[in-house]
Amino acid sequence: MTFGLRRSTVDDVAKRAGVSRVTVYRRVGNKDELVQRVLLREYRLFVAEVDAAVAGLPTMEERMVEGFAAILRLIRGHPLIGGLLRLEPETMLPHLTLESGPSFLAMRGYLAGHLRRAAREGAGGVCEERADRDGEGDGDPTAVAELMVRITVSFLLNPVSCFALDDDEQARRFARRYLAPLLHR
């Protein structure tokens, strides 16, 4: 947050943490590994905040709509991640695209897990098992979770859009209209 990713070094991190550079390398690894760990840590904090924002809502559709709005708001307002997306998008891009494997899989798994639980609990007809053209139902919400994560990340990476997503209510309207139908595939 102080220097940005480009200008930050492992030495800077070690100094701020009050440890030696060697300690950072031994415990965390190089700068790229440090960035990945910080992003994963922040992801865990986001998950807790999003879970708290949607906990009292009765249906998965309502939880997904509110979760989408909360994620956009939290990330855009985050001093590190939101700040870097605005100030150093070219630096953040690899961490949210080509090098995003662990974060992406964690986000997809988190959402797919919620969709599975909601389907088991009967929370709003989510990803109900249905017969496909071959007569077999898959019922696995992983594909739906992946689409939702990819759509959300794309709006964070490139906010220029014909969709108005500047505040929570606009984000909710978008989610109800375009994301909620994915729950009933």
UniProtKB/TrEMBL annotation:
Q: Where is the HTH tetR-type domain?
A: 1-46
Q: What is this protein called?
A: TetR/AcrR family transcriptional regulator
Signal sequence, start to end = none
PANTHER family (UniProt xref): HTH-TYPE TRANSCRIPTIONAL REGULATOR RUTR, HTH-TYPE TRANSCRIPTIONAL REPRESSOR RV3405C
Has the keyword Transcription been applied to this entry?
no
Question: Would I find DNA-binding among this entry's keywords?
Answer: yes
Keywords on record: DNA-binding
Q: Which InterPro entries match?
A: Homeodomain-like_sf, HTH-type_TetR-like_transc_reg, HTH_TetR
